[in-house]
Amino acid sequence: MAKSDLQPARGTHDLIGEEFRRHRHVADTARRVSALYGFEEWATPIFEDTRVFARTLGETSDVVSKEMYTFEDRGGESVTLRPEGTAGACRALVTNGLTQANLPRKVFYAGPMFRYERPQKGRYRQFHQIGCEVMGAAEPLADAEVIACGWHIQQALGIESGTVLEINTLGDAPSRDAYRAALVAFFRDAGDRLSEESRGRLEKNPLRILDSKDPGDRALVAAAPTIAPHLTEAASAFYDGVRRALDRLGVPYRENPRIVRGLDYYSHTAFEFVTERLGAQGTVMAGGRYDGLVEEMGGPPTPSVGWAAGIERLSMLLEAAPAAPRPVAVIAVGEAAEGAALDAVQALRRAGVVAEIAYKGNLKRRMERANRLGARAAVIIGEEEMAAGAAQLRDLDAGTQERVPLAELAERLA
């Protein structure tokens, strides 16, 4: 067969067969577990007014300046394919008038996201995320519970032994102000040893230097001050509350003072679930507290916390793909039996039995197709069976066969 010159766009991929079953298993498991914690699912648009992301991700961030798919629509409006899910959820909270009543709102989402970046293992330009957000809760218990939900999802997927939760605190505003001053003083002394990009960040957003991938910067960061000595009493108490709740909820963690979030609306808890099983792309779930984000959207102060996780990365950690359902093959022997076979296959489906009907070929060819499908049983109906109101039921694993009344097929195969 000639190969088409039409291929998936760079950085995208088709989800077919085993890969799709892995993907769906991750999303469905996350839906089920998050519902146990009281999360309701929301679906926001795949594209938004560009300001939704430019305001919330930071005009100078790599996502906004280098990675967003932004374009003018036919009406001259600037729109952007969503690069992440939190901003859309916060925008939905505000524009649907949900900021005053029934808080906190516990929201789960799942769907495609888009970033223009170099494709690599576990990273695509169109990728998929699940996420949980608790909007309207200022207490440390909300941070611990949203983390526990993410941990529970990983346990339900059977991948928790391959990931580690790392946590840190960003403190409150006074804590961060004092920490920024300490970082600026430290990195200013480094002078030309800082990368050009980090020198540009020094005055505007020194916390982002801690995220630098430059090898020279990384060596400096290892010796940089941490936030712990700069925490206010209130910020320290909040962090203690998160850790106590995680201990009580049975969620293991280790502290990593280098986990940061560069934007001002982030505060207190920052966390990541990391793994060594995916090479350089070691983060599979990440989040934190973003008490100022809803306000950035034009809403009232609404303390919030949440996380997002890449479905592709989580699915790569699964030991095995969920098995495809094994159907029952319904086979008509002779043209006269096709009507009875159609009645039988539809009756099985209504009873919740996965059933396939062969469209053509003699009995041998139709049985060969049943084997290719991995069918667990074959229901064979010929003229003799029609006259008796029955079918031959062949167990394709055991190799046994018996005549069964049509009215009892569904019960026997359920």
From TrEMBL:
Similarity remark: Belongs to the class-II aminoacyl-tRNA synthetase family.
Signal sequence, renumbered to the chain: none
Record EC number: 6.1.1.21
Enzyme class of the recorded protein, top EC level: ligase
Principal subcellular localization: cytoplasm
GO biological process, one term: histidyl-tRNA aminoacylation
Subunit structure as annotated in this protein's UniProt entry: Homodimer.
UniProt keyword Nucleotide-binding, yes or no: yes
Keywords of the record: Aminoacyl-tRNA synthetase, ATP-binding, Cytoplasm, Ligase, Nucleotide-binding, Protein biosynthesis
The Aminoacyl-transfer RNA synthetases class-II family profile domain, residue ranges: 1-327
GO molecular function: ATP binding; histidine-tRNA ligase activity
Residues that coordinate or bind L-histidine: E84, G85, T86, R115, Q129, E133, R261, Y265, Y266
UniProt protein name: Histidine--tRNA ligase
SUPFAM superfamilies according to UniProt: Class II aaRS ABD-related, Class II aaRS and biotin synthetases
Subcellular location: Cytoplasm
Gene3D superfamilies for the chain: Anticodon-binding domain, Bira Bifunctional Protein, Domain 2
Catalyses which reaction(s): tRNA(His) + L-histidine + ATP = L-histidyl-tRNA(His) + AMP + diphosphate + H(+)
Domain of life: Bacteria
Organism lineage string: Bacteria, Pseudomonadati, Pseudomonadota, Alphaproteobacteria, Acetobacterales
Gene Ontology cellular-component terms listed: cytoplasm
